[in-house]
Amino acid sequence: RTLDDLGDVTGKVALVRVDLNLPMKDGSATDVTRVEAVKPTVLELADKGAKVLLLAHFGRPKGKRYSTMSTSFVQGDVEEVLGKEIMFIPEVMGPVVEQSIGILRNGDIGLLDNVRFWPGEEANDPEFAKGIAAHGDFYVNDAFSAAHRAHASTEGLAHHLPAYAGRAMEAELKALDAALGNPEQPVAAVVGGAKVSTKLDVLENLVGKVQHLIIGGGMANTFLAARGVDVGKSLCEHDLTDTANRIMDQADHAGCTVHLPYDVVVAKEFAANPPSMRICNVHEVASDEMILDVGPQAVEALGDVLKTCRTLVWNGPMGAFETEPFDTATVALAKTAAALTEGGSLTSVAGGGDTVAALAHAGVKDDFTFVSTAGGAFLEWMEGKALPGVAALTA
Ligand code: 3PG
């Protein structure tokens, strides 16, 4: 059920789970994308006359109250994005919440404190969920990025109140369905990042679902080593080469082509524009060199692969993109994907950790069909797992 299924909400109290786990530096948020994502839901409910109570976690306080992890830290950012003043409420249940609801007028917004200050949240304690639910008339979950957690505010509340998916949640689920649930084929997946060990389940799930698996970043080195390539002193999980071979066998059986780079950018030291940097074939990496990016020929070939595809799902950068010029392959491939999306031949969905930063760095974040605000939840979805927060809404 979505907000379209709500009747008249005037004067009703909406408990809205949002993700305000914003990256912070020196006390202020460095990226407010997650607030922008929930803005339509929050303002829609406020405009319809509900009293909107925002419920969120912030950091990992593990059931204890830390003043440095209060959601009051992000109140200013939320107010700025929403363009509205909101009331900070330093509890999640009890008389203070009740009194605050009495003060809020219809259409006003309150921000409850960090729900993870209470151990009942992560324990998904039904009594804790009931205590919060007692203040609301209905529950809206608009925090896809926290939906992989079976916590009271992400899962439990759905069992105590009429539950609805917010607009951001709805958009995420629609985009993810278009990417892997029910995609137009052929489908390509780009999986990058440093370590294979963190993405084994992702790779195993993808080989059965996509026609092209493009592996980049440090992960590719482990796959190259599995194929007998000497990767010099590159980041490589040598103990996982058997696993990498198994995944490549699975891909073969499933009709999925695994694309590994055949030329690479190497250097003897990891620094910006190092003098030792050169481009070479993967079979020519010297023992004192490390692979830091995918080479230009491979990038061009991968662009040609994308041109034959209708759907792309992307997680993780192709190289050490935070240090120039090892962002080159990521930027080039992202631009190709963005251009194909704009041209109408490709549905492109990206998400998870560094990916959003990489696409923003390439200047194409807004040109993809959909960019998820989720980190861990996006990965778990790519692993093919059911997300408890989503399951509770659809039960
Ligand atoms: C995130 O930042 O990915 C979500 O808010 C989930 O946070 P968590 O990993 O602390 O549960």
Automatic annotation (TrEMBL):
Pfam families per UniProt: PGK (PF00162)
Domain of life assignment: Bacteria
This protein's pathway: Carbohydrate degradation; glycolysis; pyruvate from D-glyceraldehyde 3-phosphate: step 2/5
UniProt-annotated location(s): Cytoplasm
Binding, substrate: 19-21, 34, 57-60, 116, 149
EC number(s) given by UniProt: 2.7.2.3
The family this protein is said to belong to: Belongs to the phosphoglycerate kinase family.
Xref: HAMAP family: Phosphoglyc_kinase
Description of how the protein assembles with itself and partners: Monomer.
Name listed for the protein in its UniProt record: Phosphoglycerate kinase
Organism: Qipengyuania xiapuensis
